[in-house]
Amino acid sequence: MSTDHRHDFDVDPRTARHLHQLLATEQVRGRLPSVAAGIVRDGTLVWSDAIGTVDGRAGGVAADTDTQYRMGSITKTFVAVAVLRLRDAGRLDLSDRFDEHVPSSRIGAATIAQLLSHGGGVQAETNGPWWERTPGGDWEALAASPVSQRFRAGRRFHYTNVGFAALGELLARAHGEDWYEVVRRELLAPLGMTRTTTRPAGKAAQGLAVHPFADVLLPEPEHDAGVMAPAGQLWTTVEDLARWAAFAGGDTGDVLSPDTLAEMYEPHTVVDDPGQPWTTAHGLGWQVWNVGGTRYAGHGGSMPGFLAGLRVDVETGDGVVVVTNTTSGLGPVGPELLKVFVEREPRTPEPWHAAGDPSVLDLVGTWHWGPSVSTARVVGGHLVLGEPGKARGSRFAPAGADEWVGLDGYYTGEPLRVLRSPDGTPTHLDLASFRFTRTPYDPAADVPGGVDEQGWR
């Protein structure tokens, strides 16, 4: 077992032993040739471990956190971030049709946002031989095959590897160089991810299939997928992938703004499995999960001979990465490792200090929308009206003198204005045309439609 302690946080040895036990048990249960995992907190890899050998043989070279594995579709998150950087630079709009940037294909009607969120209706796989096991060609050959749309753009979720090949081509044309060079220069190099490559380099695990009825192995092929590479070709290590998990948890450095990352996590297309509750969706290149009200973001990955997973708690930034060199057999050990870690290593709350702004005290207290009652508070610089997450409760961020903007639920992005009497006393709140008054139906507060002159009776 190898456990990393790279900042002031130390994992309790009992927690480390329990995490090791979970990973070792999963390696045996799933008959995984090797499996490696890591936990991230506060932008740092705080625990890591590896079990098994790179070739699946007893006495072979032991896997470790610097062993490369294919990350599969986690590759898509790198492509997505590179596309959002183009958007932030003003070089494209997410509502642009794909053919505005890459013309002459049958998927051009899908927007960039729809391709990122698997909502463009584009076919899932190529028309030729299984691209994950055969060398790939270029964009012109793929477009001429021809690839097309299975559904009307925007109609529904339909996972598409072809769509991310298209986005890789978009990156290449926008920058005048291969998509991986864009990712390497703009993302990997600034984040120090020197062990993330398109082909195995240095110590790397052999991709393997394990026979379903016998303890024997079959090597899986490794190749250059060509134009399909942006859908799942990158190789990485636990240490490098943990840095990407830290990025996903909010430690974006100068690579991406936190606001853009949050935008990427907004659900666009829901994964609608018949008979199952909606818990999974896709944002802009990221999978997002709602587990009992806790929001997670990340991605899974699979290629012949490899499986991988990355998941972070969007609110806390705590995250987990798992990689293994087998075609099938990995259970949900990643989420279980993260759950156990969080339960056994709870975060210590920051001490409370009085740091409020007394100038907004005249806004706190009871307000009324019609006969309903809401309480206004100021928390962490936000005006909070009602209870966020319940009914239309929302937080509001300051946007100017007596101007606020909604951050949650129904009022997200909507304006709240404070109206005052000549002496400066707040008379009412105008929230997206709804009037909140200090007393129910205050006739002096310009209630829309007026107030019955005879008043309450």
Automatic annotation (TrEMBL):
Residues 357-438 form the DUF7586 domain. Keywords: Hydrolase. Residues 24-329 form the Beta-lactamase-related domain. GO terms for molecular function: hydrolase activity. Coiled coil: none annotated. Transmembrane segments: none annotated. Pfam families: Beta-lactamase (PF00144), DUF7586 (PF24491). This is Serine hydrolase domain-containing protein. It comes from Terrabacter lapilli.
